[in-house]
Amino acid sequence: MKKLIAIVLVVALAVIGCSALVACNNDEKTLQVYTNAGFAPFEYVDTNGKVVGVDIDIMNYIGKELGYKVIINDIEFKEILNQVQGNKYAVGAAGMSKNDERDKVALSSVVYATSVQYVIAPNGTFADNAVVTLDQLLAAANKIGIQAGTTGQYLVEDYIDEKEGATNTTIEYTNAIVASQDIGSTVAAVVIDELPAKAIADSKSNLSCWKIDAEPESYVLYFNKFSEDLVKDVNAVLEKMIADGIINQFIINHSNGN
């Protein structure tokens, strides 16, 4: 009887061990992708309530190429890097601009797209200006809406801090879509990246958008600091996607997303 119990115990432990191994392997083959779905065409919620967009297509393509299951997590933009820092198989994919502060806490992929900052405001705010200076922005908008944690926030707030006598203030939003709903009431304008700005302006007859005279930025994916091998594998796929025009096609496919 004791011998039988011992055999059963050994078998049970073996099953548990195999299950644990499978679970571990499953964890290693799962990519937790963190995004913020208010940044069309890179990430937005479609009419069926599903998170879609350029970054989602990119991550699904990478997952298929590398054999990973991709799980999309829609969270606040400013929380994305916190999630990435806690998981070697996490990816920040949210139209994230490469900068020194982010590079201190996470690894970046190769650049897969570029952008510039735009301002969204009521029609005629800046007349027919092709490009708006930051001085013109501050003169026209005392309260400016920004998406928390984005390049637009740093650009505007740093300039306000540096501008002698400036009384302008910024108001944080979870995304530019929500912020744009307050233009004309809580805020006078919203600053966000080019394609999201154009998508929002195209969807609202009373709003237009203008390019801001500022340095362009580069979009990358962000990874855990200890995920060197994963970044290397992802970069190989990204570089091929860029060369084959796949990412450009994704941008075209989602150019009307909002």
Walk me through this protein's architecture.
By secondary structure, this protein is α/β, with parallel strands linked by helices. It has 2 domains: 2-114 and 218-253, Periplasmic binding protein-like II (D-Maltodextrin-Binding Protein, domain 2, 3-Layer(aba) Sandwich); 117-212, Periplasmic binding protein-like II (D-Maltodextrin-Binding Protein, domain 2), CATH 3.40.190.10. The chain is built from 10 helices and 14 strands. The protein has helices at residues 2-28, 54-66, 80-85, 100-105, 134-140, 151-162, 176-180, 194-203, 228-243, 246-253, and strands spanning 30-35, 44-45, 51-52, 69-74, 90-97, 107-108, 113-115, 117-122, 131-132, 143-147, 169-173, 189-193, 207-212, 217-223. Strands 1, 4, 5, 6, 7 and 14 form a 6-stranded mixed beta sheet that branches. The protein has a 6-stranded mixed beta sheet with strand order 9-13-8-12-10-11. Helix 2 (54-66) packs across helix 9. The longest helix has 27 residues, at 2-28. The protein is globular, with a radius of gyration of 22 Å. The model is unreliable at 1-26 (pLDDT under 50).
Please tag this protein with its features.
258 residues, D-Maltodextrin-Binding Protein, domain 2, 2 domains, six-stranded mixed sheet, disordered N terminus
